[in-house]
Design goal:
Blueprint: H1 2-22
Amino acid sequence: MKQRIIIPINLVELIHERGESLGFGSYKL
């Protein structure tokens, strides 16, 4: 069940890093 949480966290981290470039820095989960 932890894997299911790890996958979203990885996506959130990628989104957060790319979000800064796209201007989604205020995007929080």
